[in-house]
Write a structure and sequence with these properties.
The protein has 442 residues and is α/β, with parallel strands linked by helices. The protein is built from 21 helices and seven strands.
Length: 442
């Protein structure tokens, strides 16, 4: 979006919204004085403050922070009176980026200032798309401002990050969000005092919005519409107007990874209530249920393991059921599997065992297969000794043939060491008995 071509802007560069624009757009701060939170970025003499103003130096920026913390607002303020073009990495491609760069180069050649190119969700650009920005940033054909909810160290290519100033935005406090709500209720750009909001309703809006200012103003607008001009928003009205809590969760950002991490760690830690809480947050936020189901299958093998072999069966059945029935009924299946795995005894010994075996193989300790275990189902195998001396286990006492199975290089290796948790206690006893029959233990 080219704001200079599309709509008027204020003296500070922030676009003047239409009268029917969403409340969050109408209340966008027009100057640093109206920005709430982010005090660490707004201190006098800070790098950000030095970039704002008619005589400010040009510098590309990466703004990193949760949704609704002011990344777009700060981009407008930095741009000031310069031409401002906004692209979303969700919908824009390399062709769009190059068109902006070429146009800005032409304008610079004619004596104009470079264009400020704002790319929202820049982490969604591929490496190739991000690399295409490097010459323009390095030669200052454009001033790039990228916004991301993901850690730039992992989501933005190093050369681009090294040429930009990284500014980290912090989640807004409840007090900061509350002040924004109060301002929107009274400000002429907002609701202009047309409604009253009870303290309990206001607290409910702030609590549901979390640290997201945009979400808070969107919820306020919804309850204001429900109350009507001159009305009063009560706690009951606020709850009815907000059909479902808008969970502070970004499916593609850091919170996505934080919530799924907390979910897995809660199941692993056997706290069923915490596990169901994080599952609920993902369900309400619209997370792909197949993603959740896949993580449960992995967890069942990695963390429950042979302490309860049925855990993997339950997890796989849940994955199949969710794929078959979809949502919203899939939440019931996911809840059942989550509760089962959280309450199951835990063991990661089979997971550790295969990794120990892989480590030996990668370290060159694979060794040759003992001759008596080699394939003997072909002509000439007997002549070279393959299969010679092999003892058929079903013909041996107890169905266990005492012979060497491991290669010489790892003949004494022990990979699987069961715990005494759940069914693995039984497996441990069985393992000890078998090792004696095999002659591996005295």
């Amino acid at each position: 979006m080219d704001l200079f071509d599309a709509q008027a802007t204020s003296a500070t560069g922030v676009p003047e919204p239409a009268a029917n624009a969403p409340l969050a757009v109408r209340m966008r701060p027009r100057s640093l004085d109206e920005v709430v939170g982010q005090e660490h970025l707004l201190a006098e003499g800070s790098p950000l403050v030095r970039l704002i103003g008619p005589d400010a130096a040009a510098a590309s920026i990466v703004l990193w922070g949760p949704p609704g913390t002011g990344k777009t607002t700060l981009a407008y303020l930095v741009a000031g009176s310069r031409r401002f073009v906004e692209l979303s990495a969700v919908t824009a491609g390399i062709k769009d980026v190059r068109a902006v760069i070429d146009d800005s180069k032409r304008r610079v050649a004619m004596g104009e200032r470079e264009t400020v190119l704002f790319i929202d969700e820049i982490h969604r650009f591929t490496r190739t798309q991000q690399d295409a920005l490097l010459p323009a940033v390095e030669n200052r054909w454009v001033t790039l401002i990228g916004a991301t909810t993901e850690n730039p160290s992992f989501s933005v290519v190093g050369p681009l990050l090294s040429r930009s100033l990284l500014l980290t935005l912090k989640p807004l406090t409840s007090d900061a969000v509350s002040s924004l709500v109060d301002r929107a209720i009274e400000d002429e750009r907002g609701l202009a005092g047309a409604i009253q909001v009870d303290p309990e309703a206001r607290e409910h809006i702030v609590r549901v919005a979390g640290a997201d200012a945009r979400k808070a103003l969107t919820l306020l607008e919804a309850v204001a519409d429900a109350a009507g001009p001159g009305g009063t928003v009560t706690a009951e009205l606020a709850e009815r107007a907000m059909d479902a809590a808008l969970v502070a969760y970004d499916k593609s950002g850091d919170q996505h990874y934080d919530v799924i991490s907390a979910f897995i760690k809660s199941v692993r830690g056997s706290d069923v209530d915490a596990a169901l809480h994080y599952l609920a947050r993902m369900v309400v936020a619209g997370e792909d249920p197949r993603f959740i189901a896949r993580r449960l299958v992995i967890l069942a093998a990695e963390d429950v393991g042979l302490a309860d072999p049925q855990g993997l069966v339950v997890a796989q059945a849940a994955a199949d059921a969710v794929s078959f029935i979809g949502m919203p009924e899939g939440r019931i299946v996911l809840g059942e599997a989550t509760a089962y795995l959280a309450l199951a005894p835990k063991s990661n010994r089979s997971y550790l065992a295969i990794d120990r075996a892989i480590a030996d193989v990668r370290a060159g300790r694979a060794g040759t297969v003992p001759p008596h275990l080699r394939d003997a189902h072909y002509a000439g195998a007997e002549r070279i000794g393959h299969g010679k001396g092999y003892q058929y286990a079903h013909d041996a006492e107890h169905g266990v043939a005492a012979q060497q199975y491991l290669p010489d290089s790892v003949v004494d290796a022990t990979y699987y060491e069961p715990t005494d948790h759940g069914f693995e206690r039984t497996l441990g006893e069985r393992r000890a008995h078998l090792r004696k029959l095999l002659g591996r233990d005295p």
